[in-house]
TrEMBL record:
Domain Glycosyl hydrolase family 13 catalytic, residue spans: 4-368
Name of this chain's protein: Glycoside hydrolase family 13 protein
Family of this protein: Belongs to the glycosyl hydrolase 13 family.
Keyword field contains Hydrolase: yes
Molecular function (Gene Ontology), one example: hydrolase activity
Pfam families recorded: Alpha-amylase
Entry annotated with the keyword Hydrolase: yes
Amino acid sequence: MIYQVYVRSFADGNGDGVGDLIGARDRLGYLADLGVDAIWLTPFYTSPMADFGYDVADYRDVDPLFGTLGDAKALIDEAHGLGIRVIVDIVPNHTSSAHPWFQEALRGVNRDRYIFRDQPNDWESIFGGSAWTQVEDGQWYLHLFDSSQPDLNWDHPEVRAEFESVLRFWLDLGVDGFRVDVAHGMVKPEGLPDIGHADQVRMIGSDVVPYFDNDAVHEIHRSWRKILDSYPGERIGVAEAWAPTPERLARYVRPDELHQAFNFHYLGTRWEAGPLRHVITESLETAASVGAPSTWVLSNHDVKRHVTRFGSVERARAAALLMLALPGSAYVYNGEELGLPEVLDLPEEFCLDPQRLRDPDSGRDGCRVPMPWTSAEGYGWSSPWLPMPAGWGPLSVEAQSGEAGSMLSLYREALRLRRTVSGELRWSDSPEGTLVFSRDDGFVCTVNLTGSEIAFPAPGEPVLSSGPVEPGTLAPDSATWWRAKVA
Ligand code: ISL
């Protein structure tokens, strides 16, 4: 299991209200105890923070808000000492407008490292509005995200060489891999054709938008794979790619490309047996067709937390046992193991997500509220950068740690048992609204996705359950792990 540390909100080492690398290092013991195999650190590089670090001004340094390069090195080394691998984010589709290259471009020097044109086309930014901004001399530059995130020109050899060098910089420092931001972006189609579609942003993930999932992007991933493979140990690449279908997604994890790709089809599936079974089967088959593991994810810093998406803590508990029973790799977003809900009523003045600034209904602030560590007021934070709701005491790490039935205990236990589970997934027939599958050595997982009890004979001895276990029935919105006797 790979644990996503949203650095800003995970743990604060210097008491300034913003999470940082020292804070994360201080909590490595907690993560080891939870049972994580690796952590993924969201961007901590020098940045004006217009998109909370996904706008990088210096790819080889740490922003003072998060610490120093020495802190990064110490965190990596200490994690390794605990058997935890460290994956860092790399943001290759765009830089910050504060990056020296873009500052040069504004002065008319080496503009071709970015995408400047005399006339804009009709593309819209993911965050809303035109994807083009005009500069003083009349030219326009492309930014698929915020205007402070100009898109790089990946046809330029210097861009390719620079990122290869940045990869080597972090690999030399000891990281175990990269989460590749917008891995389906980077290469734009020849001639930047108009889309001519009125509702472009809603069409992302379809074949309609020509700026994502171009075939030519795979050549970059292949060249990165060669770099990863040239280092000792296993260094991995994880694609953040929003591909229209599982087949298209599987192309990012072909044997000579990246190792994993977040399964956003799974993340996007509602709490219903039929659609979930379909997406699980399809994802396993397509990943296996290229020899890659499936990679499951329920929450991250860009989407509404799944307690809120699914509508209840019971469902989130069951969803955790379902995900952690599946073959492949699972990603857990910090706070998910505490069952944190989306914070829906953040005061407007704190909400600075560029996506929300354009569209108040789509803000990503509510899933980025800091982790409650202690039960007392402040939850272990002094003036957290986003206010933390009243009533989160019982959700804190402190409160849940010693509580047998807590969400945290469920994750800990599931992660411990998961290490003993292997083999392919085999579906069994089961009543409507339920999912039942087995793995090797008699491991069975049952899930009831309905709001009613469903009669089902116990397939073995229960070993872990998200809800009550009654003989002969599956409790509403619950999942159970069983050990059947192997003949
Ligand atoms: O394509 C999308 C949805 O179908 C977008 O969600 C897009 O892939 C996604 O927003 C990319 O997210 C990543 O890059 C962004 C940053 O704001 C996010 O936080 C990051 O996860 C720009 O760097």
